[in-house]
Amino acid sequence: VVLTLASSRDAFSEFTAEVNNVLNETESVIARKARILYPTKESEMYGVIRRRLFKNWDEKSAKIIADAYFSLYESTDEMNNKFKTKEYKNYLKMSYPFHPELIDVLETRVSSFSTFQRTRGALRLLARVISDIWKKKEEDVHLILPAYVALDNQQIRDELTGKIKKDDFIPVIHADIANDKGDAKAQLWNKDYQDKKLPPLASRMANTTYLYSLIIGEAKGMDEYTILGSIMTPGIKSSVYFSLLKKMDQKFWYFRESNGRFFFNSEPTINKIIQDYMSIVESSKIRARIRATLQSEFSGSLFKPIIQPNGPSDVKDDDNIDLIVLDYKYTSVDSKEDKTPDIINEIWNKAKDEAPRIYKNTTFFIVADSNQISRLEDVTREYEAYQKMEENKEDLANLTKDQRERLEAKKKDIELGLKIA
Questions:
Q1: Beta partners for 306?
Q2: Which residues of the chain fall below pLDDT 50?
Q3: Model confidence, pTM
């Protein structure tokens, strides 16, 4: 008689407890004749999965790739030390063409969801990942990393949302990671990396951290040094990945860092809340804020500030040193061009009532760089959004302590950014 049982974390876990009770009774009867077998040890899982998905295994290639990645890990100071052990080097070889971390994430995290079948679910998901990699034919794929579980693939998305009852993560993926329109933040950021002849690192980082976010009953996410081992490939410095993580924390709507661990959450972050406020800031408010900031920053100086004059009649012809800040909406210059704007020539040469200007040498101008205007408006819009949010006591009351601290820190950054812009 052969008795088999699903894992307590498997799709049939609700029946497993009942069967366990029966087995406990049966065991007392057959114990003297029973031989208990454990068909799959944890260390053998790599081989089991590989044999189910690939006909052949090239031991020579496995050794070459394992050596290359282990060398990369050893030479990277910031890498988690677990990737630098001889034992891990052996794991790299045994798990080839999969990265050990990918199998581990599926085994210890994704399988914590009762609706994810530990073996069949993992095999189905990995089969879709392999198919997706084959179709994309990206040149730097030597080992199947967690980063390659591509959430821009609808079938893979379904496996890691609906199939594990995580439908609340669908808007998270659509906003920050991937959607069919190609306008999720990670997808838009990919272009910056591809312009530098780099792979789509934003999507890869988002895919990786999403996988680490899938767990029940334990701390979500993972530290940056372990994430590095799950995404890093030869030829790209670790600083590139760390910089990307920081940018995601600052800009993504559902991405968080807590106690050194990075993860996605179904609750929106301060970034999303502020973005909602930014969408309702009026253009007139932006112009008024810029004017008020200019007036505040230049008042009390050796110069007499004249903010956004309409023409020569707004600038007195006297021996005061005038600092004239022209209206960026109507006057700007390209740093690559030498042409002087017409309004500068008018104010320089003429005073009130078309009279020739006498005190030309006491007149100085500040003109906006046309390439920086959109940044100026964005920074100002964000500042106004913070102001609006602080006026909304109800929204403030709903923030967690961590969110309030982040809001205060970001507000200080944006205040400085507005002055610099």
A1: 324
A2: 31-32, 34, 36-39
A3: 0.75
